[in-house]
Amino acid sequence: MIRSLAFALVGVALTATSALAHKPSDAHLQLAVDGNRMTGRLDIALRDLDGALGLDGNGDGAITWAELTTAAPRIATYVEDRLQLAADGSPCSLTLGTAALVDLSDGAYWALPATATCAAAPHELAITYRLLFDLDAQHRGLVHLEANGSTQTVIVRSAEPVTATIGAATSFGSFVKEGVWHIWMGLDHILFLTCLILPAVFQRRTQRWQAADSLRDVAVEVFEIVTAFTLAHSITLVISAVGLVRLPSRFVETAIALSVVAAAANNLLRAIDARWAVAFALGLLHGFGFSSVLIDLGLPSRELIGALLGFNVGVEIGQAAIVLVLLPTLFLIRRSLAYQAVLWAGSATVAVVALIWSYQRCFV
Asked: Is 205 exposed, middle or buried (0-12, 13-18, 19+ CB in 10 A)?
């Protein structure tokens, strides 16, 4: 187990080199319910469609309008095969219209008008959404349902059917779950937090670095780090989600990757001992990344407070679970070569990989 942990940080970073070039992919299905008829639009990122269907016919790295027009029938077939709706157990017929290009916060999307006709006005809507999961395990299908003056967002994370009650609001628990999920699936956030915690069990005494003697002292330091990170990302999460400050997605994702570089490099150089200050300063960037998750959900203003609270609670639960597993393990191996390998080789590898992420997120 100890030997495995020695290389875990390196392994995670290496396997994630290309996975985090961009934020996890989303597709948006917006449907307005009017009696037995639903109208709306499905938006799918061009980069995701290219990965699924190979839209770049000549392989020059650019998808032209001519290539999109040629691929339009294949795209429609792909969607029709992987998206089904059923009202109270009876299938609804789905018709797709003529697509257009739209620009969203993270790039160009293929926008397909959609109309669904059901046998009767639905009370329970079953959504079977199977797009892109075979290519990106972190993909989300975001289904926005408008009915009876209410809007709810259903988050689909697997090919299994999900059921929505027409006219209901998005549940508080779904925001909590989304916060936990975002932390556990966001390797950049995990590696940032891990790099901050790693040196806590190997502390400075006079001019020397030695293994810590007290788990209590280590836990106090880690609590300060996590609290500073929580406070910082909560501030920017709120001000971004309510629209006071909005930053381009490419800038935010690149800055988050650079924050991982900074945290890992600080482990190697030991330039700043007060890692709670590092956690606070760089945690402000992560808050903007967290807010993009909520912004993408397209929440109405009356749901925003509950969404912010639930999502933040989920983030803290996710962080606490990571700390509760990581800290005792690090304290147990703090005097071993395995810990030294994790601290030095792991931090160096994370710094290099995060630099690659920074380049990919900024220029690719």
From this structure: exposed
